[in-house]
Structures are given as C-alpha cells and as structure tokens.
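I hope you will forgive my troubling you with a question about protein structure. I am sending you one protein, given as its amino acid sequence and as whole-number tokens for its backbone shapes. Thank you for your consideration; the sequence and its tokens are set out here:
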Amino acid sequence: IPNFITSDEEKYILASVSAAPKPKWTQLLNRRLINYGGVPHKNGMIAEEMPLWLQTYIEKINNLGVLEDKKANHVLVNEYLPGQGIMPHTDGPLFHPVISTISCGSHTILRLQKMSDATDVHEILVEPRSLLLIKDDAYHDHMHSIEELHEDKIDEGVVNLSLCENTHTSGTILARSRRISLTIRHVPKTS
C-alpha cells in the first residue's frame, strides 16, 4: 500500500527511532533491532508497555482489520544500513495470520522464495512510507529475505512496479540508504 503514512509521519518515526536509548537496541551481524511490547518466544510474550509514539501506527493497523479479530501488541523495529539485509526465513506460526510492515527512509527489494521450489522467486519493491502485508500463501508457502546490497536494479522480476508510487523503468538503479521498518503484529499468549 503506497503512502500508508505521510512524509511528516515518516520523519516523526525516524526521529523517534533515532532517539531510542542505545540499551534498547539488539545488535545482530547484519542489522540492529528493537522489540516493543515485549520479546516474543515460542510460548508467547510477557507484555511490556508500548511507547506512546507507536500507538498511532498500531491503531492504523488494527483499524485495517487485517489481523482479523486480533489486535496488534508487538512492534519489531529493524534498522538496515546500505549493504545490510536478512537471510531467507519465515516468521513461523507465532505471528499467523499476517505480518504488516511500515517502511521509512530507504526503499528495499523484498524477495519471496517458494519453500518447495528455490527457483520460484518474486521481488517486491518496498517503497518508503508504504505498508507491506504478508499473508495467505505468501506467509505459509514462501520465505522472505532482503539481499545485502548497496543498490538495487529494477527489472522484470519486480512484480509490483505498476502499483508503486514512483515510476521506475527496467534497468533503473536505486541506491539504498538507512531504512527503518516497523513490523507490527499480534503475539498470542501474552501475559
């Protein structure tokens, strides 16, 4: 969904994330992240208070009704710098039936790879200020990943070009910059 948030909201999110105390961040090999609402594990999550600045975006997701009868109670903030990404993975049954991600800062290319056929790959251009929903077959039957690149080449493998806000032609090179993603989801068995 292009322009799910405004440019001003994007600036507010980026500033709020930048103001997070360093101890909140977990540094991984290829990115860093913050869990808000608690730290999920296979048995659920012990709830923690959600920062006020995130409430608006949680409500926007809840108001869409994409979580069916559930309400969002967890936000995973990921920071990707140019050259950083994430290996192919699934989010597993804990977050079923849908994950929703708001992107801020840079674009990225999300790769969806069918679990039963590694050659069946689709690329999605994820634009700044957009909302990406992964559900149904994309959730159950595919792994998703972001390649560790400094720039992305737009080609016929990008399946959503006609839906994007910006017009890109095949062969266009997009340089990556800092990208912040807010993955907003429901964690069951929360106490």
